[in-house]
Amino acid sequence: MSDDDTPQTVEALRAELARSRQQVADMAAAQEEFLRAVSHDLRAPLRHVTSYGTLVREVLGDLPAEVVQSPALQEALGFLATMDQSARRMGLMIDGLLAITRATRAPLRCETVALADAVAQARADLAAAEAGRAVQWHLAPDLPVLDADAGLLRELLVQVLGNALKFTRGQAVAQIHIGAEPVGDGRVAVTVRDNGTGFDPARAGALFGVFQRLHRETEFEGVGTGLALCRVIAQRHGAQIAAAGTPGEGCTVRLEWPQP
């Protein structure tokens, strides 16, 4: 390249940078439109479904008792219950998508965060899920500090610890272990291990996909967005998340996270 070519090359690079910036701006605008549609446009018809389903049940309930108890009407009420359940499930799916989108777009404000403090805050958020149960928490005494956005880390821990509580409900005493060990390159491996229902290890790859579930809804509630949210949060921090499990023998979630 000659000296005469230098101005043209610089100008071409500037033009390419401007195009790239415009693409980023267009993507951000598209995400804003998605958020608007999800938060308002999609919720409006969903509210109509649940509201009018309730009105239909009230109208049917005003019919004479012998009509209400008839097999045909009882079947119709069953259809309404299924419709209402599905609509509410869709609402939870929309909430999950919104949470993932917000975690993707939220400004990342990393600081030194004590893992023990973040766990304590997440447990406080999960107090209702733990109430009335026998849960033993085993926290390593030397939990490290992490380089993390405190709010996003707390959100991730609420999902991971919430799953540990949910999938140990069948145990007389839930055992939840939280530990950490350095793995080199300025990173630490944080593990959350429980004695819950576990899962088929052959399906571990599907755990972090959106709307992916390994258990029936009749067994455990949820719509399959929590671990997808965790993956987004981990990736934004340059961290990695994985899970291992065995049916009937619990699950271990492993995070490899940067340290300050």
Automatic annotation (TrEMBL):
Signal sequence interval, chain numbering: none
Xref: InterPro entries: BphY/WalK/GraS-like, HATPase_C_sf, HATPase_dom, His_kinase_dom, HisK_dim/P_dom, HisK_dim/P_sf, Sig_transdc_His_kin-like_C
PROSITE patterns in the record: HIS_KIN (PS50109)
GO BP annotations, alphabetical order: osmosensory signaling via phosphorelay pathway
Organism: Acidovorax soli
Enzyme Commission numbers on file: 2.7.13.3
Domain of life: Bacteria
Enzyme class per UniProt: transferase
The protein's name in its UniProt record: histidine kinase
